[in-house]
Amino acid sequence: MHERIHHRAFTDRLMSAEQAAEFIKPGMTVAMSGFTGAGYPKSVPGALAAQMERQHAAGKDFKINVLTGASTAPELDGVLAKAEGMNLRLPYMSDPELRRRINDGNMEYMDIHLSHVAQHAWFGFYGKIDVAIVEVVGVTAEGDLIPSSSVGNNKTWLEMADKIIIEVNSQQSAAMEGMHDIYYGTALPPHRKPIDLTTVRDRIGQQYMDVDVNKIVAVVETDAPDRLSPFAPVDETSEKIADHLLTFLDSEIRAGRLSEKLLPLQSGVGNIANAVLAGLSRGGYKGLTAYTEVIQDGMLELIKDGTIEFASATSFSLSSEGIEEFNRNVDHYRKRILLRAQEISNHPEIIRRLGCIALNGMIEADIYGNVNSTNVLGSHVMNGIGGSGDFARNGYLSVFMSPSTAKGGKISGIVPMASHVDHTEHDTMILITEQGLADLRGHSPKQRAQIVIDNCAHPEYRPMLQDYFDRACKESYGKHTPHLLGEALSWHERFRQTGDMRPAN
Ligand code: 0RQ
Asked: Where does the Acetyl-CoA hydrolase/transferase N-terminal domain lie (predicted)?
C-alpha cells in the first residue's frame, strides 16, 4: 500500500475524502490544482459538494470561493456548481454546469489573464487563501511533492494557503517524475529579478514542489484519470484555416522574417487550435519548438512525428486516446516535454524574449481587428480569456482564428464592432477564417477594415460589412476608425430579436 507516498508525515495524515472535506467551512477561499482538465483533485471536491448539499437541505448556507489554474472537469467545477456551492470562481473555466450558473447570474466569475493569477494572489487582491487542495503523482522520501499532469498555480497555492490537502493519484503516470521545472525565483516588486530562461528547453527550477508539512491537514489517495471530452474531428473548415496559416508561415520564411524552424509556437485550446496543429504536420516542418500552456492531442502528434522537437507548457490537455498514447510512448515524450508553473509558461517577459507565435481561437473579430474571445453577444461568457492575452500582447506574431460564421450561418464571426473586446486592434496581427487570411501588420484602421472584409468575411456577410464600412467612412463623427454608433452593434441585437444576424429580406 501507499507505494506513491514515501514520507511518514504524509501517511500519518491519510484519511477519506469526506474527512478531508470537513476542513473546508462556509465562506472560505479554497485554491485548487487543475489546468484545462488535467491534474485537478478528483475526490475531495465531490465529498465537499455532498456536504454542501446536506447543509443546503437543512436550510444553511454553504458556499466558498474557488481559485484554480484554469478549467477543471465535472468532478470539480461540475459538482460544486450543481451543489450551488460557489460564491466566486476564477480564472478560466469550461464546465457546462458552471457556465450555465455564471450566465444565469447566480454566482460571480472573474476572468483573469492566466499569467496574472499567481501574482494577484500574492499582491493580496483575492484575500487570504484558507485551504489548498492539490493533486500530486506522489511524495518523495524527503517529503517533496511530485507534480501531476498540470502545474498551474500549485506552487503559489501551496505557499499561500493556511491549510493543505493533498490528493495522491495513482492513475497519473509515475513516469512523469522529472518532467517538471518549478521555479522558485519569483519575488514581489520592487525586488524582481530577470528570469533566466532564454530557450524553451531551459531548466530554471526544480523537479519537485516544496511543501511545509506542518500545513498539511489531510492526505487522500485517489485512483481516477483526468477526464477530457474528445476534440471534434478535423473538418473542412478547420483544414482550410490551417492551410491559410501554413501558406502564411511559408511566405514569412520566404520574406526572411522567420527561419525554417519558425519561432516557439503557442497554441490555444479548442477544436480549431487542435485542428491547426494537426495541419502543421502536413507543412513539412521539422524540429520546431513550442512555448505554450497546454499540450493537447494535436501537439502530441507533432512531437511524435518530429515536427516539434521540444515543448514547454504548464499542463496536458489530452483526450483519453491522447492519455493512452502518452502512456504508451512515455519515454519518447519525457525527453521532449517540460511542465512549468503558469506564471512562467505565460510570463510576458519570456514570451517577448522567445518571440512566440501565438495561435488562438476567437468568437468574433470586428473589421478593425478587435477580438472577442470570451463573451457571446457581449454578455454570455464562453470559457474565459485564458492565456490568449498573455501571448497575443507579447508574442512575435499574434494570430486569431475562427470559422467565418457560427450557428449554421446565423452569426457572422466578422462584425462591424466586437460586442466585447479581449484583444484590442493593437494586439491583433493576423486574422484567419476559412475564407482567407488578413495580415493587419503595418496598416491603419481603415486599411485593416478593407483587408478583413475582403479576406475573412463570409460571402453572405461581406456586402453587409462593406455597406456598413462605406457609410461609416462618410458619416462617422471621426474618420480615423469610422463607426456608426447607433448601428455598430445592431447585428447582435438583430440576432437576439430574430435568431439571425441577417435581415429578413
Ligand atoms: O459552440 O459547440 O455550442 O456550437 O463557440 O466554437 O468554433 O468549435 O471553436 O472550440 O476553437 O473555441 C473562442 C471559445 C473557440 C476558444 C473559443 C461557439 C460555437 C461553439 C466553440 P457549440 P468552435 P473552438 C490558451 C488560449 C479563449 C481562451 C484561449 C476559447 C463554440 O478558442 O475559449 O484562447 N478561447 N486560451 O458555435 C456565438 C459566435 C461564436 C459562437 C463560436 N460568434 N457567436 N457562438 N461560437 N463563435 C489556452 C488556455 O488559456 C487554457
From this structure: 10-221
